[in-house]
Sequence to fold (408 residues):
Amino acid sequence: MTDTNKIILINITGEDKPGVTSALTEILANNNATILDIGQADIHSSLSLGIMFLTTEHNSGDILKELLFKSYELDVNIKFKPISEDEYGRWVDMQGKNRYILTILGRKLTAKQIAAVTKIVAYQGLNIDDIKRLTGRIPLDESARSAKASVEFSLRGTPINRTEMQSQLMSLTSELEMDVSFQEESMFRRMRRLICFDMDSTLITTEVIDELAERAHVGKEVRAITEAAMRGEIDFEESFKKRVALLKGLDVSVMEEIAESLPITEGVDRVMRLLKKIGFKIAILSGGFTYFGNYLKNKYNIDYVYANELEIENGKLTGRHIGDIVDGKRKAELLKLLAQVENVDIRQTVAVGDGANDLPMITTAGLGIAFHAKPKVKASADQSISTIGLDGILYFLGYKDSYMDEKV
Fold:
């Protein structure tokens, strides 16, 4: 008589301790069982271990008996569930479905935020395969807590309406003071290699042209033009020429003074240090000025700087620029060019910026992030960060604090 196959799922819960997984899988090994799936999670030293295995009808009784005795010896709880071949087949078929990574980020994360996000996930017909915390464990003393929190969900399936889902998630970011990234899981997501940053209001918290304008006593006029350009109300090239013309006669020594006191955005030191350690090539693509871009390049060992060159005669600004203007279109072109130079697929690139002139590169990159962006930019981007500093990018890339802060 032919011995039939038997598929069994066991779930083990209890206090986490060394040797539990080893002892239970040894029983399966001694009985020639085949492990079909295995997964484990640990929350506050509480173990949740699942193992699905294939054995024969003849051996299954002995295996279950041995597992039951061993679980009693280890002081853990064990449950058994038989799985039919049809159930197993449907589960295997799920492997071919699309996979996505949804990351939530904020100064702190609450049950309300997580409930709102997972409600959208469920409504769109996606299944949560895995959840992991990317930031460190949370102390009860709020004063000792990190200024950021991030959780990553691994999802499987196909959204009923991805555009609607994206819109719903982005609406939550404003309502619940959080940031959300929804990305398709692929080999490219795990192999990002080139990142391009805007400079003004991204790497630094000011617009340098406004700082120059203050020194030239034309601050009000320049700020009005800057704000209109960032909102996308006037063409960037036109606004650039108008603002630069107002700087005519300013002494170049002022540029050095401003550079040495640039207000660096929260998280820049950490993100630059870690991106270089990981092996990223880093570029500044800015509608600002090369003088300040080069200052940051030297400070953070940045690989490329493309920005606008101010014309200088006799130690003073002429009110004109040299060469082509780096506008939104040019930023997207430079992103593509740098990807070719570095032999990087465009899907392995990241672009980060805040203004309307950053949208072309944000939408071109494999991962485009609107950072503390103007409403029009945030509405047009798939990912945005508005609640924490620039190192929030690292969580959207999938890195955990426990790895990132290991002597790097």
